[in-house]
Give the backbone structure.
Amino acid sequence: MRVVVTGAAGFIGGHVADALAGAGHEVLAVDAPGRSPTPEPARRAWAEVAALPGVTALERDLAVDDLDAVAAADVVVHLAGRPGVRSSWGGGRAAAERDNVLATARLLEACAARPARLRPRVVVASSSSVYGSAGNRPNREDDPLDPGSPYAASKVEVERLAGLAAESGLRTVVLRYFSVYGPRQRPDMAFHRFIEAALDGRPLPVFGDGRKSRSFTHVRDVVAATLAAAAEDLPPGVAVNVGHPEPVAVRAAIKLLTGVLGVRAEIRREAPVAGDAALTWADCGRAARLLGWSATTPLADGLADQIAWHRSLRAQEVAVG
Ligand SMILES: NC(=O)c1ccc[n+]([C@@H]2O[C@H](COP(=O)([O-])OP(=O)(O)OC[C@H]3O[C@@H](n4cnc5c(N)ncnc54)[C@H](O)[C@@H]3O)[C@@H](O)[C@H]2O)c1
């Protein structure tokens, strides 16, 4: 299959491009690393993805550039965007609208403009944040959406666009990812910040009181779900939760993390983030039925994996420096 992966310089996109190329697919990796909130690491990751066997890299800003080449595929896995609840307030709102909504609208338009038999299947990244704080039970895909931040609202709009495109004949599927972690996690995400702080001997910066719970999902599991969605003809426009079935409180995750690291860490409490749900909890029935998928990585194992990655980065820096 010829597969386009947008956002391939990013955390999830890099893993997905790697796995697709490893499975023998022809991969066109697309990104605009300058649009990442951390452009320097994104540029390094971009160079690594571009060097993978089976991957061709194409720099395109989805919000402005011509997208004919991006739409010419059997499958487009659309992971490019501006993630993050916290950074979407204030000045970040415009970036969320540009790189999530406008970019997706243009990409879907380019795909829909292909002759019917050449239109790609399009897998679109959404987020558990679309549910908001929807009660003390697992969220099912047909629950009402209640976005609590500009980021979540941008993803609701992305989903609406994917639904409209499906009604006009494009085979879209929406994956609602839940708090993804693992090697190469974004620097603004909780585990990345906790592990770096612990390795430096600094207090761990925790937003709020650490009681918020998340369906933390290892990127290996996320890649498996994404590849399954890319390979299947699913009901057009369907949304599917991609999350671990057991939510864990941030405090409990910190206990696991410091246990793996073998350190006692102090916590530094920071102001809670507006619009951050108290709980995200994935109902995984639809993913099991449609994709034959469930998350299998236990949090302790996944954290050990991410910690090993942070340590390997530090070892490389020492070797180079
Ligand atoms: N990481 C998570 O826990 C998580 C959870 C829910 C949803 N998601 C969604 O999954 C997708 C990937 O997330 P991630 O964590 O890998 O993010 P990331 O920031 O690591 O990757 C996103 C990539 O998109 C690129 N990009 C941004 N705007 C672009 C544009 N206009 N044109 C081309 N490229 C552009 C960036 O340069 C970056 O490399 C995003 O859509 C995100 O909203 C992620």
The chain has a mean pLDDT of 96. Residues 7, 9-13, 31-33, 35-36, 42, 61-63, 79-83, 99, 103, 125, 127, 177, 179-180, 186 surround nicotinamide-adenine-dinucleotide (CB under 6 Å). The domain at 2-177+219-243+283-296 is CATH 3.40.50.720 (Rossmann fold). The longest helix spans residues 299-320.
